[in-house]
Amino acid sequence: xxxxxxxxxxILWNFVAGPWGGGNQFLKALxxxxxxxxxxxxxxxxxxxxxxxxxxxxxxxLKLKQQFPDKIFIHRIDGPISLARGEIGxxxxxxxxxxxxxxADGTIFQxxxxxxxxxxxxxxxxxxEICIINAPDPNIFYAKTYTEKKNNxxxxxxxxxxxxxxxxxxxxxxxxxxxxxxxxxxxxxxxxNPDKPxxxxxxxxxxxxxxxxxxxxxxxxxxxxxxMESCSNSFLEAMHCGLPxxxxxxTSHPEVLGNNGLLFEGSxxxxxxxxxxxxxxxxxRRNLTIIxxxxxxxxxxxxxxxxxxxxxxxxxxxxxxxxxxxxxTQFRLKN
Length: 335
Hints:
single chain; 2 domains; six-stranded parallel sheet; 11 strands; Glycosyl transferase family 1 domain-containing protein
């Protein structure tokens, strides 16, 4: 349990109750954990720490820094966006990097891969930086008691999820499996927004978190095939529901997967890796290792306190900013 004494924290985010992307789901879980320990403020005026996210609400973050120069601002970064969205993403990255340089007192990356890539394309290093992985709400995403299945002839249930219908979210692999998977031995469910219809894969529209978690617990193996992820929340939700995973061997996937499944390169080996993981399914499920949201929230809080101590010891100097209105206009247009 978190200590219920410490800095008051405000997350600069418009929270959405239903299914609405991984960032929204993680920040809701983090907010709930801070709130349950009495260290969350619904208003930035009463907060010591303001956590802002990626490219969202940068104009608001800038105005709050002008209004409250003595508060500590922490920037949670994903991406780089340009690796997924090309030229449009480059403009977004420039906005993220500029705002990080102007007002952020510390930076939280969701994976080591994301940190390295961001620095490689121009994000300036800060004195206070850290990598902290995500975690879902444990009241929703938890594993059921698992009993080993002795019948080796049973259908193995595969599942993948994606809020985004961007083709880079792994749809090349999902459509390959739709055509080439042995559907007498395996079933495949996709939950989310597909880029185009499937023939054999069962497709379900996005579900609220509680129903999504129930669906995950009803399956055996999660497949994460995205071509670019800084830290996939859908991937983590599945593992927290007790599912070993097959993950594409790229970007942050190896970090997030750990020893909880197998990596694959693409269509060349995905069928073999499905067979391999299925044959050792009970072993992987018994040894599944996850980091709970309590530990993640502790890491966030420790990082906040570290920066507060640096400030109190004279290593931090608040800045009163003058920011031209053109900058605010730029960020409003890009959010």
